[in-house]
Amino acid sequence: MGEPAYLDISARKWKQLNSLIPAQWRLDDKYIPRGMRLSPIESVHKLDGFGDDMGSLVDIPRKCGILNSREIAITENWDVQGLLYEIAEKRLTSEEVALAFCKRAAVAQQLTRCLTEPLFTEALEQARRLDHHLKRTGKLFGPLHGLPVTVKDTFDVKGVDSTVGITALAFKPAIQDAALVELLRSLGAIIIAKTNVPQTMSFLDSVNNIFGRTLNPLNRSLTAGGSSGGEGVAVAMRASMVGFGTDIGGSIRIPAMCNGIYGFKPSVGRIPYGGTTSGQPNGKLRVALKPVAGPIARSIEDIDAIMKELVPRSELFGHDCIPGLWPSLTPLKKKLRIGLLLNDGLVNPVPPITNILKEVSNIIARSQVADIEVVDISAPAVMKKCMFTGGRLMDVDGSGPLLDLLDQTGEPLMPYLRGRTKRRPPMSIEKLYALCAERDQIEVDMRQQMWSWPPSTATTSKVFAQTLDAVICPVAAHPVPKHDSYGSLSYTTTFVLLDYPTGTIPVRNMTETDLNLEFNAGDKPLSKFDEGNRQFWKEDRKIYLGSPLSVQVVTPRLHDHELCQVMSVIDSTLKRHYQSNTKAML
């Protein structure tokens, strides 16, 4: 018996990826982290080369010499609307913008392994066509004319692979574009690359046997998150103006948290999801937990700029989309009532997470941007069921199809998945019926109990009065964790089960003061998940110093535009507060 097939496939795929990075875009060895010199398979297991021997990677694209000063300015000086305006005014061409971002993406890949499919040649060809169109007609091709974006590896792009980190899916290029890819290109956006994910997309650290481990550019000892981890890194490294991920358990919001940027998980039907590869049986997502596609960006304004173009057109491209409107963001004229949810009844956050939630609530209660009332709320009793019900819906097929794919090439599971992913019989139709009925009842109970203020005690009322506009809660119960150590998903899976739109807002970085916070004496763990979460705070905490602290904002189902409005108000308020405090200290 020879070597398992996955080893050869991994080597060939890695060679193919590297061949797509031009020689003149290659980094000097002095810039490349030790861990990046490992093969993809070695990087799965060896973490000692990923320490902070070189500090943050974020500034290297600026100083490595591959981008000239104009290209650095192109990739750093504008938000989405500003860059589109420069192209529309012909002060920048689509080609020079695409070239700058392709070069920056190539640098980011060499530093972090964030890419799976560089599309640089295709991107530059599309950019030249856009420039020709503008010169010939005097009109933009579309409202996103020339905007460089990236998409998660799951989105099919005709002619390239969608491996989702599984070697059995390598060298099997897609025969057509995903609906979102078609929509983006119809608007003039340029897709410059696809980005890395976990093997099978079943955990929160973007690592697999084909492309290796994606590094967090802020702190290589901590995870970049998943499953849209490559997207989070590409956006944080300014290798993309906006990234598009998917979310079924937190896979947009968690990479945003890990990389200190913004993530937006819409309701089902707002952005096309069809045309993605997951390794799952066709039709499973119709009866199980439904993932959604959504943006990861460097500001809420960039998210708004993208959503206002996608949402009204999504139904024309995605069979899975609903009609929708997206008005421009305008100052809120009504008073906002926002609930502060400190725990979900299942897992108590570690002290700095609780502290940042209280800090944010105190700041926004004094907001000069909008009239905001913050009220403390408790988790409805039924909320504890959400993670378990969501997890069972994710696994209705017993993991058999994914494990069959791995068996085809003799590929082993990632270390994190071993012992957690086991082959089981598929769920019977009777059990599936019961599980869906359980989900229905949870949705009814949460709708009645979470959004009423004061909380409703009625169980038979047919009238529902929403009196909370939004809820603030943790993204995770712990800080950005080390590789392969992410804890409970209860704060993110819950809102996929309920189909509530949710978003991540970065607040500030972890300080020495945060590291000195302790649990209250006498506090008892709420569950075995809570006991596990407390371990984060018993270990060496210094590793978390300087890591991003974020909050999650939630609104009721289909209130996606309202979520964007509330996030904008909160974000603006926080920025005013921290900027004024910084000035006062100078």
TrEMBL record:
Reactions listed under catalytic activity: a monocarboxylic acid amide + H2O = a monocarboxylate + NH4(+)
PROSITE patterns per UniProt: AMIDASES
Which one of the record's GO molecular function terms can you name?
Answer: amidase activity
Q: What is its EC number?
A: 3.5.1.4
Residues annotated to bind substrate: 201, 227, 248-251
Report the SUPFAM superfamilies cross-referenced here: Amidase signature (AS) enzymes (SSF75304)
**Which keywords does this Swiss-Prot/TrEMBL entry list?**
Hydrolase
At the top level, the lineage of the source is Eukaryota
Residues of the active site: 152, 227, 251
Question: What positions does the domain Amidase occupy?
Answer: 96-564
Q: What class of enzyme is it?
A: hydrolase
Checking Pfam families in the record gives: Amidase (PF01425)
Which family would the database say this protein is a member of? Belongs to the amidase family.
Q: What is this protein called?
A: amidase
The opening ranks of the lineage are: Eukaryota, Fungi, Dikarya, Ascomycota, Pezizomycotina
